[in-house]
Amino acid sequence: MTVGFIGLGNMGAAIAGRLLQGGHDLVVWNRSPAAADRLAAERGVRRAASPAETLQGDLAFSMLADDAAVEATLVGSGALAAAAKGLVHVNCATVSVTLSERLEAMHQALGLAYVAAPVLGRPDAAAAGQLHVLAAGEAAALARARPLLELVGQRVWAVGDHAPMANVVKLACNFALAATIETLGEAGALAKAHGVEPQTLYEVMTGSLFASPAYRVYAGLIGEQRFEPAGFRMPLGLKDVRLALEAGEARHAPLPIASLLRDHFLAAIARGDAEKDWSAVAMTAFRNAGL
Amino acid sequence: MTVGFIGLGNMGAAIAGRLLQGGHDLVVWNRSPAAADRLAAERGVRRAASPAETLQGDLAFSMLADDAAVEATLVGSGALAAAAKGLVHVNCATVSVTLSERLEAMHQALGLAYVAAPVLGRPDAAAAGQLHVLAAGEAAALARARPLLELVGQRVWAVGDHAPMANVVKLACNFALAATIETLGEAGALAKAHGVEPQTLYEVMTGSLFASPAYRVYAGLIGEQRFEPAGFRMPLGLKDVRLALEAGEARHAPLPIASLLRDHFLAAIARGDAEKDWSAVAMTAFRNAGL
Amino acid sequence: MTVGFIGLGNMGAAIAGRLLQGGHDLVVWNRSPAAADRLAAERGVRRAASPAETLQGDLAFSMLADDAAVEATLVGSGALAAAAKGLVHVNCATVSVTLSERLEAMHQALGLAYVAAPVLGRPDAAAAGQLHVLAAGEAAALARARPLLELVGQRVWAVGDHAPMANVVKLACNFALAATIETLGEAGALAKAHGVEPQTLYEVMTGSLFASPAYRVYAGLIGEQRFEPAGFRMPLGLKDVRLALEAGEARHAPLPIASLLRDHFLAAIARGDAEKDWSAVAMTAFRNAGL
Amino acid sequence: MTVGFIGLGNMGAAIAGRLLQGGHDLVVWNRSPAAADRLAAERGVRRAASPAETLQGDLAFSMLADDAAVEATLVGSGALAAAAKGLVHVNCATVSVTLSERLEAMHQALGLAYVAAPVLGRPDAAAAGQLHVLAAGEAAALARARPLLELVGQRVWAVGDHAPMANVVKLACNFALAATIETLGEAGALAKAHGVEPQTLYEVMTGSLFASPAYRVYAGLIGEQRFEPAGFRMPLGLKDVRLALEAGEARHAPLPIASLLRDHFLAAIARGDAEKDWSAVAMTAFRNAGL
């Protein structure tokens, strides 16, 4: 199938690569043309002259950085309004629930189908087809997108029949990751304050009750204080916590750990840690204990 | 070996059973005599007339409910002062770091060895020898206790050469469990507020990044709101969070998530949930969102 | 002087009344025409056919509900772009710091002067000329606005030479009011839990260390649980706390009490208290204690 | 009247001085004899050889540092058990609610009357008779103590017929002071982050809605960062917040601002501010904003 593809950042490029490996043809667009040029040269994909051109087939993916990029590229540019009727648009970006709600309504009004499919995992997991894909949208559209999503995910989780539900699940997972980081920070500071190396505690935790990828990855980073280069920069962590808080606020759901995390991300950025991995927010607990 | 054993509650009895299965003889004491009588009748163990009588050999275990029970049974009764020189005392109870520090000093002054060996897991795991044992104390004493601890634990984690270090690790783990409960509560409330069943979210979490025993157990309980009968009652959860906070305070280590948990446990007990499992504290997040 | 005036809600009408009493002529505009008609009929002021028409003189006031109303009425309508060069525009509304920054820049680009002059106090204080006016802006503009501001305020506080500084001061004061409400709630719940009537505590507080208008007003409302009719509705309280948090976030300043307040406002609204006075957020503390 | 007096620290000596000025004779005891010697020499008071000797008349005051000092001096020493039947004991110290409950029961069992009368204000206010006295206890005992309490207080607030009620009110007031300090810190940090001097904000606040002694005193200290010499040291602030939290916990009343304050006091002490005035806890907000 020929699939439109917008957004060739690290994650977008990895997903696009999986679709190509799966035998699909791509017509791609990227804000900065270099990435699209490279993919065109290396993999023979067709370059689109505009975002709209990627939306003329049956199915298109987009993987843009944030709400503003989605607004500008798909709405502001007029691309969506010019899309082929019946198109299934699969948006893999982590965007706000509010934007997802608006996009779903716009697609419906334009005779398009909208699937939200944010992912859990980093670009290398995407390149290996090992992401977890959180997908939601109208059932028929989801069914059409699924074979392609299965190329990038070890598992595709269908979490609802409205696209924003996938965004909520993604934000809830990222919130839980941030809570994990803070929990490891506080537990580690408590240990260290009493002469126990945080890594000793983390080995116990990840070798017993907390033997999960999330705890292993972040216990490793925090235990070794390996925060640079950042896998996920501090301001992106703050952004996702803010999106969770806003999604909560829209339905009057307070999230006190998220409130606390927001404050800690701000303090971390204020003291100059903006370029570090978001897991460096765990150092707040150590620092506040004078450790 | 003949091993003294004090405290035959659910967990104590399970641990005692493992020591018997391992071929050891026990001399046991319990505050309410029924449990000791039963073990004497069924398993032929010797009943001690006083706590002191269990402390006359080379090695003794104690598994008492809390700081007060330990103080009364071992210190107030004069048992410790009357113990055989050279005794290795293995305390499996979850007690405060402060009490553990005092006990370590008292043992040393009396020519006794003190090993703290609190455990992770419930009585059925103990009966199956599947606990995680968190052990700390002077190396020689720990070495003598280890073969017996391996009868109850799938793994014995040596976390330090001072007994209180094991108590710190235990409190840090229980704090992390409580943080997990609250995180699941907030994430679930966010999901539900947007029409996603909490169980859908929890399946994604425990099937991907959070595939650990802790998350599986508590996501199950919270997802099904299965809080009675309690595996671990609310006031015990509050107590352990308080012990973590006190251990932090003793070294000027603030633990903001623990502070928040303390407040939520109090509110849960105030609204009448004292008899429920501590995982019911997750319902705070749902209730505060009007769900 | 002939003064333009936009926004005749309760507070706007009270301020307009003071300017009239001070001998000024007004040319007024209001979204719903009834209020403007009434003022025209009763006080002989001139009604403007558009917001732009109020901005053709030397000085104009606006008192609109929120950011969106300011955007729509002054920017979206083209009014500001059509204003007379040299106009001093005095904005008394509580708006976001971000909007105030944008408005200041827009005014400058258009050859207009922008003074932010949010007020502390309720409409009856305005009608009596007893507000506290928090004013900021370029010195010459502020000097021209001051005689008029002194008609509505018992005191005009010049807090800076950039308009947004007045908005920051206003948000900081409203944050401190909200913190006062929460403090009274928690202190009152502690008292009541031990058999002391909250009002007894509040009498001590407001009769000794806390003898200020803020504590007297809110201790009165909370002590008598007199939350309806609302003087300042719950969602407005939430909005102002959110504006404080956003202003903090823009400069990486965490405000943990504001985070906590946001969560409590959300919970209060979720349980159905949206129509009550924002001081009803103090009941959270009583409710969480089972009182 | 001859009045017993135990505890001649700064505050105790000031209160004793007022009683002397009021024409009463004192029989005094102090742990370190120097203070008692001085008072004996300067004012001709009688020195008691033991705490018990001060408790042989109709009325005695005590003003000791904390729970431990009260326990040791009055209970552990056997003084209370040896007191004259019918004695009215007025305890001005800020002690825990739990201790006050126990003391009330002990006095009753011994045929003594117990009045709790903690005070608001510093030693110089005591010397001028300008304290606020928070008094509680059985009515007849309170009536007998009142004339003496009026010598030290500009006002004596009778807050209940059980002594611990006065301790609750005192802890609630100190909690509110600590909340005021944190509120001023956060509001000041928000202002400063946007270019407004905290002192400008504080002038507005204390000149309008927050014109109370508490806000004036602490806005002054924080605005000038005048934290040394300490009027009330950081660890004492932490202690009082902890006592408020414990009093809340005893009745299942969560106090989230107090939890937050506890964490901030710990962090302040951890970074080396233990010798500073407790108002220095406000600097946390500035520091966390990178200011």
Specify which chain pair forms the largest interface. Answer: A-B, 65 and 65 residues
Helix content of chain A: 40-55%
Quickly give the structural class of chain A. alpha/beta
- Unreliable spans of chain A are none
Strand tally of chain A, please? 9
H-E string of chain A? EHEHEHEHEHEEHEHEHHHHHH
Strand percentage of chain A lies at 5-15%
- State the shape of chain A: elongated
- C-alpha-based Rg of chain A, rounded: 20 Å
Oligomer: homotetramer
Distance between the termini of chain A: 57 Å
Number of helices of chain A: 13
Topology:
The structure is a homotetramer of 291-residue chains.
Chain A: E1 2-6, H1 10-21, E2 25-29, H2 33-43, E3 46-47, H3 51-54, E4 59-62, H4 67-76, E5 88-91, H5 97-109, E6 113-116, E7 119-120, H6 123-127, E8 131-136, H7 139-152, E9 153-160, H8 163-193, H9 198-206, H10 213-223, H11 234-250, H12 256-270, H13 283-288
Parallel strand pairs in A: 1-2, 1-4, 2-3, 4-5, 5-6, 8-9
Antiparallel strand pairs in A: 7-8
Helix pairs in contact in A: 5-8, 8-9, 8-10, 8-11, 9-10, 11-12
Provide the descriptors you would attach to this structure in a database record.
homotetramer, 291 residues, alpha/beta, three-stranded mixed sheet, 9 strands
Quick rundown:
The structure is a homotetramer of 291-residue chains. With 291 residues, chain A is of the alpha/beta class.
